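Q: Protein A?
A:
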Amino acid sequence: MEKTNLEKLNTWFELVKGPKNLTIDEAREINNKIRRLPSNRQELQEELILGTMHVIYDFLKNFTFIEDVNTIYDMDDFISSFCEVWIENLEQGLYKQNDFLNMFNSKFFDKLNEKLGVSEKNSMFVHINKIDFDKE
């Protein structure tokens, strides 16, 4: 029997979650260390990325149509693309936003659509893009 999208998400999170869920202030502090201490960069980047995976997990877990993803995207590709965009935007977002949730804005979803090869009009994020998360 094939796993549901929520089961796939739970399995993914168990594999990638960090030992500690970072707050945005803790993530900023680590990011500042990365900029100052290039010798420990890889270890600190890993701590930052793994420590913020809970943000992606929580967002997607509460995404009201997570079970509909397979009708548009492959769930594994969806999670992978979501993570790629998160990591690409993490450093910049930490300085511009006061909350992790505010990092999910129209620019984030535009990049996600691009990675998934979906036009905006066919995106499941059009409603989110334009109404719920544009807090820049």
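Q: Protein B?
A:
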Amino acid sequence: MYPDILWKRTRQALLAHPELKIWEGDSCMTFRETACWVEEGAEALRGKIPAPCKCAVLCRSERSAALSLLLCFAMGVTALPLSARYGPAHSEKILRKTEPDLILTDADTGLPLPEIRIDRMDEARPVEPAPEDGYG
């Protein structure tokens, strides 16, 4: 399945139950708000992310990680989810093997990749395609 097809099906499922909520701590988003956030984010990033693109996802917040994955699906880019639980050495090993173009995150990662902070997408700058020799 292509990533944009994943988004279309996920969007359809979200909008079938728009009042349901995704909770994290004391904050929540309805399924309708989630679908709107993803579509607005994808529109804000159009033209700033190379196509085709491999996009690593590394977030502290599980909800931010899920939103970032949905954002990748909506933009039709390949998502490479990473987990902070396994530590930076594990993430760097995966990054070297997969050679992503950028990273979507909710915090500064310190990794040698262009970062797009999902909490500051309006500040995102265009990302150049990864060099031929790849990561690191």
